[in-house]
Write a structure and sequence with these properties.
Pfam families: HTH_Tnp_1 (PF01527). GO terms for molecular function: DNA binding; transposase activity. This is Transposase. InterPro entries: Homeodomain-like_sf (IPR009057), RD_transcriptional_regulator (IPR051839), Transposase_8 (IPR002514). Keywords: Coiled coil. By secondary structure, the chain is mostly helical. The chain folds into 2 domains: about 10-60, no CATH class; about 65-95. About 70% of the residues lie in helices and about 0% in strands. The chain starts with 9 loop residues before the first helix and ends with a helix.
Length: about 100
């Protein structure tokens, strides 16, 4: 069974980075206090460093715009249709062999 990735709000990420800087604790200890992985905290800190102290947050799906989200949806729909067409072609080929 696939484990679902936990998603955190923009406010939580920013608060976690602020907590790390204000606590004076190591990254691992701060992450343990917040019950998050140290790699997540590190990613948020790096994001804040490169964005003037603000953690970049794009929400679920990681699309920077609605247009990109729609494009991804349409690409998936196209892949599904192409897969269905391939299956039908194979079925026709099998039925025509007899």
């Amino acid at each position: 069974m696939k484990k679902r990735k936990k998603q955190y709000s923009e406010e939580f990420k920013q608060d976690a980075v602020n907590y790390y800087y204000s606590s004076g604790k190591s990254m691992k200890d701060a992450a343990d206090d917040l019950k998050i992985s140290s790699s997540s905290l590190n990613n948020w800190i790096q994001s804040a460093k490169s964005n003037d102290g603000i953690v970049e947050h794009r929400g679920s799906g990681n699309y920077s715009s609605d247009a990109e989200k729609e494009i991804a949806r349409l690409k998936k729909e196209l892949r599904d249709k192409e897969d269905a067409l391939d299956i039908l072609k194979k079925a026709i080929g099998i039925l025509n062999e007899d």
